[in-house]
């Protein structure tokens, strides 16, 4: 859940780096189809009176991005992220009356599927003697909830799911989303929980064919991904409420990084996660101070996302009414 | 689908490298549980009269392995593989009367699920007004087949599924499988379709915490994974029928590599895949010569795995009757 890269050098937005990143990126497949879906989605929302919660849209990014090491990609570097945070948060945003654009890594955790086993088709269903497909009683409730809530969100048009795999796809689609959300002004939110690569291999400097291992050890040089958070905030979606995430395995580094991200990228909030405790608690870092949000330990199935999204929604309301 | 690494230097089995690989690997979780499952599975099969097809077991490996770049793994290098080849082949092996140990990468393609959409729960099911869960008529047949055939294989005990993620887990479990299959002699087969990393970062030389990007570009040195194919064939399972895979994006390199693997690792067969055409045709390389296997293009839903597994099973029969 580290959407930024962490160069300690402050400084201006690196437009040249960003231009060369996008110029060198492979063309986005289905970009016109994605554009069309986004336009329909945001246009419908923007027709809702601003006084209603239903006029709010959050773009939740989820899962890790890959960095191809070869143009015909056999090998790539991946960032660990199950997508659990993004999928769970999406459910709570929908519950809070938001429309959600769920920008997720292919194959990662989906909204409403958290409580299902790894292989629901195998573990939750059986074919009866009359060759009907039946849900095993033990899973009936969770499966029914998953299917009905998930389908209804898609059908009502409050949930738009857009998949990505590589860092190139992720940032290209994020830009399309940001531009199409501008019409929503401060009702738009970015909740950037995806684990975005800090390093990449520029497409043009990439080998076309599979790297051969015949020549001894493999030495690789990766360059830093430009600071897109800064551009998102400053140019792509200057009116939107922006929340980024920091994930570290070392708690000492974590808060220092969160403070830096808040300042450097001018985020409204930074959610600080420590890898091992991130499902129990997170620290929300804002200009007004730090708040530690805990999971309700009195309930077995309570998520830390429940109080987290409540806090985020309240702050977003303040932001909208402040008219900034 | 490149289970070997490709050092062009011939030479003896690198026992020292292999020892240091296993010594430095993080301990395998649930190893006793995996061992128990394997013992039950292979013992039951070994009680079947050798004259019957049912006494044959194939270990199908599927999907790509990851190479962690940090001990508390946030970043890792992955090998592209959907797992489609392994999952599809597993179905045809079961159909041919084999018992299958399916050693698969978590999250990759599963047997019987090929023809289902990406998100079957969302796209194939609906909750009826009586809040029953019903399959949409359009998907009824595929869903019913997926659930019934998959479940029956698990329940009959002809399919054992074992998941892995990292190169360390993969090779540790593969070794357990090989040892427990020795009791089956030549009735055992290894069908090594997994895309195994050629390079890895030795665990002890790995940074414990997340790599920080504050210090400019990232330079990495990875070392070659030891030639496990050679050890599998020579020491772990000397009587088993062994098939390895080569995947290349460059056809010129492909056959040269396949021939080398056949000779160097003493495989019984090497299946050569070209990345872009691998679902249409593969070239089976054996000491007796090369055979190109094509998908039956007259049928829309025919797989190249159908004729491929037929050929493999015939050759395995010859191998068993030859008493080698």
From TrEMBL, chains A, B:
Pfam families: DFP
Record organism: Penstemon smallii
Recorded GO MF terms: phosphopantothenate--cysteine ligase activity
BP-aspect Gene Ontology terms: coenzyme A biosynthetic process
Keyword set, alphabetical order: Coenzyme A biosynthesis
Family per record: Belongs to the PPC synthetase family.
Annotated metabolic or biological route of this protein: Cofactor biosynthesis; coenzyme A biosynthesis; CoA from (R)-pantothenate: step 2/5
Stretches assigned to the DNA/pantothenate metabolism flavoprotein C-terminal domain: 181-297
Protein name: DNA/pantothenate metabolism flavoprotein C-terminal domain-containing protein
């Amino acid at each position: 859940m580290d959407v930024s890269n962490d160069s300690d050098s402050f400084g201006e937005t690196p437009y040249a780096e960003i231009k060369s990143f996008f110029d060198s990126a492979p063309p986005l497949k289905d970009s016109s189809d994605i554009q069309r879906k986004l336009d329909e989605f945001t246009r419908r929302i923007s027709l809702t009176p601003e006084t209603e919660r239903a006029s709010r849209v959050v773009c939740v990014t989820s899962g890790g991005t890959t960095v191809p090491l070869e143009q015909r990609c056999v090998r790539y570097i991946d960032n660990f992220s199950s997508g659990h945070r993004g999928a769970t948060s999406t459910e709570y945003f929908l519950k809070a009356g938001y429309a959600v654009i769920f920008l997720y890594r292919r194959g990662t955790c989906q909204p409403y599927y958290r409580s299902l086993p790894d292989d629901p088709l195998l573990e939750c269903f059986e074919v009866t003697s009359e060759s009907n497909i039946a849900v095993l009683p033990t899973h009936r409730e969770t499966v029914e909830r998953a299917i009905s809530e998930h389908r209804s969100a898609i059908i009502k048009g409050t949930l738009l799911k857009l998949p990505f795999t590589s860092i190139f796809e992720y940032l290209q689609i994020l830009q399309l989303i940001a531009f199409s959300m501008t019409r929503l002004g401060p009702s738009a939110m970015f909740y950037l929980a995806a684990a975005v690569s800090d390093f990449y291999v520029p497409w043009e400097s990439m080998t076309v064919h599979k790297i051969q291992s015949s020549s001894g050890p493999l030495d690789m040089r990766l360059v830093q991904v430009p600071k897109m958070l800064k551009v998102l905030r400053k140019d792509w979606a200057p009116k939107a409420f922006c929340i980024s995430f920091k994930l570290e395995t070392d708690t000492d580094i974590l808060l220092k990084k969160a403070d830096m991200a808040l300042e450097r990228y001018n985020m409204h909030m930074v959610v600080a996660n420590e890898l091992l405790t991130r499902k129990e608690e997170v620290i929300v870092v804002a200009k007004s101070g730090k708040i530690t949000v805990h999971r309700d330990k009195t309930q077995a199935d309570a998520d830390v996302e429940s109080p987290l999204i409540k806090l985020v929604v309240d702050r977003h309301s303040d932001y909208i009414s402040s008219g900034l």
